[in-house]
Design goal:
The chain is mainly α.
């Protein structure tokens, strides 16, 4: 207390010091005193009220504790009295056992009396119930069945209460009501028939289906009641619980599975499209059934049955089982595609589960996959393997068919522009197109894989195509009369190369994404190279055909007969032009190349004829006559190939200039200028060798051995400045028999 007093005094001193800090505040001392007095009085009043309240509460509590103590004493005394009375009445309770047994017997007799009417009328009720079931009045039949079961169950329960070990009486009751169990089974059979046909019944007679559901609900309630009684008493009637609701869903599940499996109407042996038909029937049936379930069936069942979602799960599981069974079969390539397309695309599309009329109850994003990713990968792997074998076989067969056309006696067909062609490119790329369209039905990844596969096989196929074209040429060379239309079909082979090129580009543009171009660039380049080789060899073989016919006329060149006025060059030009009338059926890229090659080979053969030294001019007059004839024939060649190359935009005059340049060397009258003329020739055509110069001087006929040696040695020492645009031509020409050293001896 002293400590508290000191703290109070110290606090008061601080408050007073705070109030009297300035001299003018001394005038308010009395005012401060009155204010503090009022505060003190107020605090004291509150303290007194609080203390009084606490005292009242304590007083009340003490009073209640006192009353409680008295009550406890009274209760204790009452318990003592009850215990005393209970001990005194034990013997009396034992004397009432007979009364208890009488009560139980009375209860059983009362139950028997209550059910007496039903007991005596059991056979009649059974007959009536049977008739009701046969007439399809299922609700009334079930009502009577329930009455019979209730009577039996009550009697058996009372017997169980009286003597649970008395199986004889229990069996007696059960036997008496034995026909009732048959009625239950018969009624159940009718119910399950309605449940099996529920999707049909709901459209024709929804009332019948509702009756079935009501019966099942009644049985469910009885099952629950009997199970509850079993927990309390241990007794449950025979045949309970029936679990008809569970059985109903089991039957619906079996019905759905049977419906899915029963849609296969054909086999592979009877119909190649059996799987497509099977899957389409499944799609139609499932969609129709689910729409009926949503719009009609759902209204016939209580909400807690969730019948639509239950049926949806049943159909999904049945479909998954069926798809897995189909996937396990030995499917062909087209069947694998049909199955995967249906599983991966059709199933979730608007044509089936994605149908707008099924939403929002059906969310395709929440549906599990019908077959696992592993099975899908196995099917795709099998498909690619089978497709590879099929494509190889198809390509081989297509080539064999095309080869048979090559030996026909009729010309090949021409396209709308008049170019010869065979059906091979169309057949090959139609096959590729069909397989790519089929693969696109599944996904983009498979489409890309199939495209890569097609182009890979195309690469191998073109190599075989090249080999077959070469064999075709070799067979023809053995007998040039056979095949009759060799030239026309070789032209068609050449044109096919261009068609193949265009088709490959079109196929890639249509089915390959731009970001995948690089992966096939090498393969594409290889195919283009192979096609160019085939076309080039084809053109070469056709030119070989031309020059075999020209050989007798080429042999006349630079001979005495030629000098005396042979028309060999005229015949050569007519023959070439005649062949090129057929070659007009070659497509432009290759026709242009072929025209240039023909021009080059004619000039080469002409120069080769000069270098063969079949003639040696005796005097200036012969040299002049021969040179002028060469210049005239060069002009004929120039005119011919200019005509053949019309529209190609190519300069065809340069090759004929070589003949004219050689003619100028031969025509030269002043031998002293011969070195200058030859050096000019060499500077224009730097691939001229010494033996070419020696042969040319031999044909001229007036060059001595010393002159030849001097000219050749001097030219060898001179600088060579070849024209970068010049395409060597003399390197192909060999000078037979005499070499330069022999010539100079």
């Amino acid at each position: 207390m002293e400590e508290t007093d000191r703290e109070a005094v110290a606090t008061a001193v601080q408050r007073v010091a705070g109030m009297l800090q300035r001299p003018d505040q001394l005038d308010k001392v009395e005012q401060y005193r009155r204010r503090e007095a009022r505060k003190k009085a107020s605090v004291e009043a509150r303290l007194k009220a609080a203390i009084q309240s606490q005292l009242d509460g304590v007083r009340t509590g003490l009073s209640q504790l006192h009353n409680a103590l008295n009550d406890v004493k009274d209760i204790q005394q009452s318990l003592i009295d009850v215990n005393k009375d209970w001990r005194q009445s034990i013997n009396t309770i034992e004397n009432l056992k007979d009364v208890k047994d009488a009560v139980v017997q009375h209860s059983q007799l009362a139950a028997a009396v209550e059910n007496l009417k039903n007991i005596f009328s059991v056979p009649e009720i059974v007959r009536e119930t049977h008739d009701l079931i046969e007439r399809g009045e299922l609700l009334q039949a079930h009502r009577k069945l329930m009455d019979l079961e209730c009577s039996r169950d009550d009697l058996m329960y009372e017997q169980y209460r009286m003597d649970s070990k008395n199986t004889h009486d229990m069996n007696l009751i059960h036997t008496y009501f034995g026909d009732m169990q048959k009625l239950s089974e018969e009624l159940a059979k009718q119910l399950w028939m309605v449940v099996q046909r529920s999707l049909v019944t709901v459209r024709r007679d929804p009332t019948l289906l509702v009756s079935v559901v009501r019966i099942i609900e009644r049985e469910e309630k009885i099952d629950r009641r009997m199970l509850d009684r079993k927990k309390q008493t241990g007794f449950i009637p025979p045949g309970r619980p029936k679990k008809w609701k569970e059985k109903m869903f089991n039957i619906l599940e079996r019905t759905v599975s049977t419906r899915i499996e029963g849609t296969q109407a054909d086999t592979r042996e009877s119909d190649k499209m059996w799987l497509v038909r099977h899957l389409e029937i499944i799609r139609k049936y499932v969609l129709d059934d689910l729409l009926v379930a949503k719009t009609l069936l759902d209204q016939c069942f209580p909400p807690h049955y969730d019948i639509f979602n239950r049926l949806l799960n049943m159909y999904h599981q049945a479909l998954a089982t069926r798809m897995q069974e189909l996937a396990a079969e030995d499917l062909e390539a087209n069947e694998i595609v049909s199955l995967l397309s249906w599983v991966l695309n059709t199933y979730t599309s608007a044509e089936m589960m994605g149908n707008s009329e099924l939403s929002p109850e059906v969310d395709v994003n929440l549906l599990d996959a019908l077959i696992s990713r592993n099975v899908v990968d196995q099917l795709l792997s099998k498909y690619m393997s089978t497709l590879t074998s099929n494509i190889i076989g198809w390509l081989r067969k297509a080539l064999e068919t095309d080869k048979k056309d090559w030996i026909k006696e009729t010309e090949p067909e021409a396209d709308q522009d008049g170019y010869y062609q065979t059906t091979l490119p169309a057949i090959v790329f139609q096959m590729f197109e069909q397989n790519l369209q089929v693969a696109a039905q599944i996904n983009e990844d498979l489409k890309t894989k199939v495209l890569i596969l097609c182009l890979q096989q195309m690469n191998s196929f073109l190599t075989r195509y090249k080999d077959e074209a070469q064999l075709y040429k070799e067979d023809h060379l053995k007998n040039r009369q056979y095949p009759q239309c060799y030239v026309q079909y070789m032209i068609a082979v050449i044109n096919n190369c261009q068609t193949f090129k265009e088709s490959i580009i079109s196929l890639k543009r249509k089915y390959l994404k731009s970001d995948m171009e690089d992966t096939l660039s090498i393969s594409h380049a290889n195919m283009d190279a192979t096609l160019d080789i085939i076309a080039k060899e084809g053109c070469s073989s056709l030119l070989d055909e031309v020059f075999m016919d020209l050989e007798p006329h080429l042999n006349e060149l630079m001979t005495k007969k030629w000098l005396m006025g042979s028309n060999a060059v005229g015949t050569i030009c007519v023959t070439v032009e005649d062949y090129f009338n057929d070659f007009a059926k070659i497509k432009k890229p290759y026709k242009k190349t072929m025209t240039l090659e023909a021009h080059r080979r004619v000039v080469v053969e002409y120069i080769r004829a000069i270098m063969l030294k079949r003639i040696s001019f005796k005097n200036a007059e012969e040299r002049k006559e021969g040179a002028e004839r060469m210049i005239k024939e060069a002009e004929q060649f120039r005119f011919l190939f200019k005509k053949l190359a019309a529209g190609s935009g190519e300069d065809t005059e340069g090759l004929c200039d070589i003949i004219e340049a050689i003619a100028e060397v031969i025509k030269l009258t002043d031998p002293s200028l011969l070195y200058l003329e030859v050096s000019t020739l060499v500077s224009k055509y730097p691939d001229i060798r010494d033996d070419h110069i020696a042969a040319l001087l031999t044909v001229r006929g007036d060059a001595s051995r010393d002159m030849k040696q001097t000219i050749i040695e001097t030219l060898d020492q001179g600088p060579s400045q070849p024209n970068p645009n010049y395409v060597p031509i003399f390197k192909e020409i060999t000078v037979p028999t005499l070499t330069v050293p022999k010539l100079l001896k």
